[in-house]
Amino acid sequence: MAVSDNVLNSAFVPQDERQATGFVKALTFTPRSGDAWRLKHGEYAKSDTGRTQLYAPPLEEFVVLHTQLPIGTTETLKASHGPTIGIVTRGQALVTVGQEFEDLNAGGIVFVAPGHDIQIEPFENPQNQAEIWWASSMV
């Protein structure tokens, strides 16, 4: 990264360009409990079954959703006004958007254009559930 007037450079720059003193002065050492770092979460209003939780970081750009589905259950997420990206972190799931569908294993990613409902159904797997984390630009 190039040296800039709005950046305190303390590493990855030549020794004579480091601003370590200013960097250390800018640090705060206020202890906080673990709860101060955890995102509050609650039910996602666009979830048909309530199996998706909403995590709202202190940003206006996006929200994070977490869907957990035991085998034999399904979930439908109603259309969002912005794009949505999902990643399967456990198990295997069939994700259907309109007439298109994807069979995703752990690590599989899906992009959903704005204005489309998302149906999720887990497949039989060793974990006996599917877990998907979503980032959506607008709720």
Give me some keywords for this one:
139 residues; mainly beta; Jelly Rolls; four-stranded antiparallel sheet
Description:
It is a single chain. The protein is mostly beta strands and 139 residues long. The chain folds into 2 domains: 1-30, no CATH class; 41-136, Jelly Rolls (Sandwich), CATH 2.60.120.10. 5% of the residues lie in helices and 39% in strands. The protein contains 1 helix and 10 strands; from the N terminus they run αββββββββββ. The protein has one helix at 20-26, and strands spanning 41-43, 52-55, 63-70, 75-77, 84-90, 92-97, 100-105, 109-112, 118-122, 129-136. The chain has a 6-stranded antiparallel β-sheet with strand order 1-2-3-10-5-8, with no helix packed on it. Strands 4-9-6-7 form a 4-stranded antiparallel β-sheet, with no helix packed on it. The longest helix is centred in the first third of the chain and has 7 residues, at 20-26. It is elongated. The chain starts with 19 loop residues before the first helix and ends with a strand. 19% of the residues are buried. The model has no long low-confidence stretch (mean pLDDT 89).
Q: Please give the largest β-sheet.
A: 6 strands, antiparallel
Radius of gyration: 20 Å
| Extended strand count | 10
User: Mean pLDDT, nearest integer?
Assistant: 89
Order of helices and strands: HEEEEEEEEEE
Shape: elongated
Report the total helices: 1
Low-confidence stretches: none
Please tell me the CATH architecture of the largest domain by its name.
Sandwich
The named CATH superfamily of the largest domain: Jelly Rolls
Which secondary-structure class do the elements indicate? mainly beta
Give me the CATH fold name of the largest domain.
Jelly Rolls
- When the domains are counted, the total is 2
Distance between the first and last residues' Cα? 34 Å
Strand numbers in spatial order across the main sheet = 1-2-3-10-5-8
Question: Helicity level, as a percent range?
Answer: under 10%
CATH C-level of the largest domain: Mainly Beta
Estimate what percentage of residues fall within beta strands.
Answer: 35-45%
